[in-house]
Amino acid sequence: HFDLPIAIGILAASGQLPTDKLADYEFAGELGLTGELREIHGALALAIAAARADRTLIISSASAPEAALVGQARILAADHLLSVCRHLALVEPLPAAEYRPEATAAVYPDLSDVKGQQHAKRTLEIAAAGGHSLLMIGPPGTGKSMLAQRMQGLLPPMTAEETLEAATVQSLSRSGLDVRQYGRRPFRSPHHTSSAVALVGGGSTPQPGEVSLAHHGVLFLDELPEWPRRLLELLREPLESGNIAIARSARRVNFPARFQLVAAMNPCPCGYLGSGFRDCHCTPEQIARYRDRLSGPL
After folding, report:
1. What is d(CA 26, CA 58) in angstroms, rounded to the nearest whole number?
2. CA 28 to chain centre
3. Which of 8, 100, 121, 264 has the fewest CB atoms found within 10 Å of its own CB?
4. What's the burial of 192, exposed, middle or buried (CB within 10 Å: 0-12/13-18/19+)?
5. In the prediction, which pLDDT does 224 show?
6. Is the separation of the CB atoms in 84 and 15 below 8 Å?
7. String of DSSP letters for 160-205
8. Among 106, 104, 238, 234, which Cα is nearest to 169's?
9. 290 CB-near residues (< 8 Å, 6+ apart)
10. Tell me: the pLDDT tens digits for 97-133?
11. What angle do CA 257, 259, 260 make, to 5 degrees?
């Protein structure tokens, strides 16, 4: 709820605030019943828009550290509506928000944790170097998930532009942005029972889905044949275009979705085809039906 702009507009219209100063500011914050300003989602995106418009953003103190990640933006932090009024009336200026994350390299799980699997590790390195999607097929317990979780560490550090893009998408999500994770490549691993809205985004007020939250990072889909085929087909658009378009009756939204897809699956329904340590009793027809759950284009 962005109630702060409405409150400021009402006060200005009633003559309690100078209207000539309002054009220099943008306001964002949820207004409590006692006038306190609460945290909101999307602070990073708001700060980017305010910087491009060359305006100062007044935002709740809880959201100010996130907004201050945009270095060229002018951010003022406020705890209460009265503090905003005192600032606009030139009685008491609001403090400028500053947040600079520690300049330390992100630490990811490393391939040195994986014993053996030289062929799989080499394949992972090639996929990371070329930006290729990757499907790993093998019995349970052979390290497919462990290998996938180490893809982040093989990718190069994100550029400043990529970091800001990924963080902005995270900021727009319902869970918001954890500023402590700023600069880390995303790794998303949704469960195969996820809905279409959770995977690609949507809702009455469109929210980014897992494909967008993995922007500039890794999207890992385990037990790939267990995913409904209609959901897997939804991945084809973002894999080809790098974005996902969500259309609703009231609005149309485009979210970025340039991710690296890593998937894993068993070789057969029981999982032990070719394992060498447990017999597989699946028939050729069962194995063919199992693998045919994935479409040819995917």
Report:
1. 6
2. 21
3. 100
4. middle
5. 95
6. no
7. HHHHHHHHHHHHHSTT---GGGTTSPPEE---TT--HHHHHEETTT
8. 238
9. 225, 268, 269, 282
10. 887 666 566 788 999 999 989 999 999 999 999 999 9
11. 160
Q: List the structure tokens of 7.
A: 């409150």
3-state secondary structure of 48: helix
Task: Give the CA-trace dihedral at 128, 134, 139, 144, to 10 degrees.
Answer: 30
C-beta atoms surrounding 69 within 10 Å: 25
Torsion sign over Cα 194, 197, 200, 205? negative
Return the beta strands (E) in the chain as ranges.
Answer: 25-28, 30-31, 37-38, 56-60, 74-78, 134-137, 187-188, 201-202, 207-208, 218-221, 243-247, 252-256, 260-265
Q: Which two tokens stand for residue 106?
A: 């992100």
* Amino acid in the structure at residue 30: E
Q: Could you identify the residue written with the tokens 């928000």?
A: 97
Confidence of residue 22 (pLDDT cuts 50, 70, 90): confident
* Spatial contact of 164 and 70, defined as CB atoms under 8 Å apart: yes
3-state SS assignment for residue 22: helix
3 state DSSP class of 131: coil
The pLDDT assigned to 1 comes to 45
81/280 Cα distance (integer angstroms):
68
The 10s digit of each residue's pLDDT in 174-224 is 888 888 888 899 999 999 999 999 999 988 888 899 999 999 999 999 999
The pair phi, psi for residue 143, each rounded to 5°, is: 100, 20
Cβ atoms within 10 A of the Cβ of 291, count?
14
pTM exceeding the 0.90 threshold for the entire prediction: no
